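Subject: mismatched residue count in predicted assembly?

I count 1035 residues in my input, but I want to confirm that the predicted structure covers every chain. Input:
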Amino acid sequence: MNTTVGEILSMVDGRLLRGDESAVLTNFAALDQADADCATFYGNEKYRDQLEKTRAGLVLVADERHEAPGARAVALVANPVIAFDLVVRAHGALPPAFVPGISPGAYVDPEAELDPATVSVGPNASVLRGARVGRGSRIGAGAVVAEGARVGEDCQIAPNVTVCHGCEVGDRVILHPGVVIGADGFGFEFEKGRHRKIEQLGIVKVGDDVEIGASSTIDRARFGETVIGEGTKIDNQVQIGHNCFIGRHCIIVAQTGISGSSRIGDYVVIAAQSGVAGHLTIADRVTLGGRSGVISSIDEPGGTYFGYPARPFKEERRDAMRVKQLGNLLKRVKDLETRLGDARD
Amino acid sequence: MNTTVGEILSMVDGRLLRGDESAVLTNFAALDQADADCATFYGNEKYRDQLEKTRAGLVLVADERHEAPGARAVALVANPVIAFDLVVRAHGALPPAFVPGISPGAYVDPEAELDPATVSVGPNASVLRGARVGRGSRIGAGAVVAEGARVGEDCQIAPNVTVCHGCEVGDRVILHPGVVIGADGFGFEFEKGRHRKIEQLGIVKVGDDVEIGASSTIDRARFGETVIGEGTKIDNQVQIGHNCFIGRHCIIVAQTGISGSSRIGDYVVIAAQSGVAGHLTIADRVTLGGRSGVISSIDEPGGTYFGYPARPFKEERRDAMRVKQLGNLLKRVKDLETRLGDARD
Amino acid sequence: MNTTVGEILSMVDGRLLRGDESAVLTNFAALDQADADCATFYGNEKYRDQLEKTRAGLVLVADERHEAPGARAVALVANPVIAFDLVVRAHGALPPAFVPGISPGAYVDPEAELDPATVSVGPNASVLRGARVGRGSRIGAGAVVAEGARVGEDCQIAPNVTVCHGCEVGDRVILHPGVVIGADGFGFEFEKGRHRKIEQLGIVKVGDDVEIGASSTIDRARFGETVIGEGTKIDNQVQIGHNCFIGRHCIIVAQTGISGSSRIGDYVVIAAQSGVAGHLTIADRVTLGGRSGVISSIDEPGGTYFGYPARPFKEERRDAMRVKQLGNLLKRVKDLETRLGDARD
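Triage response: the counts match. Full output below for your records.
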């Protein structure tokens, strides 16, 4: 963006408390990241400390007493969160508008089912035989919805996504670029010195309101379904093995892998770079810390686990502490040896 | 699917031992995952325990004495494995049939070599100048076979795969969506405060019968070849660095990374999320446990390694045990201190 | 390649010191990887040891005294590095020549800005409305430059890359296949039992001379910018979260993840499979060892860190050593117990 403090104030109906109306702003950022050319806002008491330190070009506040000594300008608005949102929406990188129709260069098979009046298919996207796409959905440039796959309503299938044959995607699902839904599960039988492929004849079923991050991969089931439960949010570069059953409203952070046939409950939170071995169960509302490696089932709901192998947070922490204090223990043993030597003399 | 117990029995020539012929089944699953709406089968004595517990809608068994007390229906068939396979093939998500020809919207360069009578090129796929594709191979929608690359016979190159210029893919190779064969190796020289690119002029050579999972990346060699040996199976999101030499019939599980110039023997098994540092050698038939991190060569064939740095399984296990017992050791030392205090009094 | 020792010598103006001019060579490789059918070179004293051991078909050397007893042929040239480079360029997999123009099957929106006389757009690539591509840049087959995105001059945007709407890529940037620039950051608010999406309205800004490896993903900012600093090189399958600020001339090796809003200094080196938690700062010239997991800021420039949680290399090493010696410590405690028992008797 390229605007002035004054232009922002007139947009959000704000009153300048301090600073220069003609100062130019070129960006917006969070309180702790805003430089002198950035607009920002103070919307939550818990960031009071950041308000004191910010060097922003303009801070929107709700109270005259909210001083920001390091900022170049401070302005009063009714609701800083809403006001800032207005500014961002006026100047930010809004997602491109939805334009229904089939773009030049897109391929929609004659036997695919979609209504060009209500679906948007980008250039060089491919919707193959027997595929169905619901109204209000957008298929990005270069994306592929393969044979017999279904995409529900109001979905955003980003560029270069692949939804493989027969897989099912619910309503209001967001798949980011590079996502692969329904590649074959990794299954082989070792026979006469070679790995013979076990056919993977199931599908992936992605529930409503799921979001899956860039380059994540969800494998199809051996038979039956790999399931991603309604409302679950998956970050980038996550790998979900065949026949996994992921519950509803889970959060799975980047670069995590879940091996085949594991069942994850509802409201489970798995932090980044974690791993879950195959054929395990994780109970509802369990939280796994970053880089956890789960190698046995967690049956009790609601706990927090950590480490590899993952254990209750306190246990893991205690052992880590003890390792740190090994130097001290060593010294105590040495001391005992000396004293015992003395004692025996 | 949507079928009845009776319909399945007539398809597989089965005899109902118990249950209701008109019961509706909507899915199939493994013995331990089958719900009341699922057909399943009992094909191997080692799952006896699961047979006792299953709550499946229908279990196919080979012997009248194989009771499944929790199942809704049990039926006798000659060979449960074959019978179940029949059911799955009738109702499962079979891969789309091979249809030779160049789809609308595909680009095949006039200087590419492929026979449209025996090769299938999907919509919006690109086969560039000098590329060659062998008979029976399928190039998926949106896939790219770049300049001078070769794809052998009977390969399945899935949608949105990239085979970069000059790389060679053998016969019967399966590349899942998003795979990248032959991106540049990561090589730079630090010079006057900047990283100067070292040109990567080699290729990747993928052997016959290799399968590579979704979004895995195999880098081209600095010069010469990065090699994936015949029959090796690679899971999703695996990264193989430049000039690696991976042996034959290896298994490399998801999210593993192998750094540049390492040599992996034949029949090596590397479990998920492992890492191998650069310029190392791993002997034939070595197994690496999940999340192993190998930082020095393993010259002895056939062992099992674990941990980071990876060590023989027993050593790693023993140390992990000792850490767990640190609390106990601490107590013993404290006790000694007390007793020694007493002893000296 | 398929050439003879003699043909190579005439190309590089070399003199045969030992071996057969008519011997056939089919490949080239580094000194330690060259087989009997490979040409190689000896260009640096530090590989003296490899020179002694090499079994190459031909070694190019700069000095008659540089014997390679295991090689089949040795030849003298003025500068082995330059000579070998000549051979490799004559026979290697050179990147395809730059041919400006819009390929058949490519889609360039009428409202995109690019000069077909100076830009190359591959088959089935898509350059969407409002996108701009600078002169000398190449957009690979199947790549997508989305609405309003900017690609600078002399860039190489490989096949199947996605540059999302509004994102900005500098000059001389290389994006390898499958890279995703500008997918949404992973941000949700938990509200009434569901995760509500926080709109991600910022962009990604990739500096000049950046290289990003296959299938790496850089998320757009919540608002403002996710920044990749000038000259930074990122390997394959790296994940950079929203609002990260990566400095200039950094090296980030494969499968590393950096969580949202972290700030990485200049000349930072992060080895493979590392992780950095969110909202942290890492000072200039810090080095992180392979698989480091950083969970608190590193404020001091130039140090080397290791482990999870990452600590100064020496501390981490020392604790690892102490764990290895636990068996010994245990024995010493047992011994003390025995002796103290004796002492008290």
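The helical segments of chain C are 5-12, 48-53, 80-91, 313-324, 326-344. Marking this ticket as 'not a bug'.
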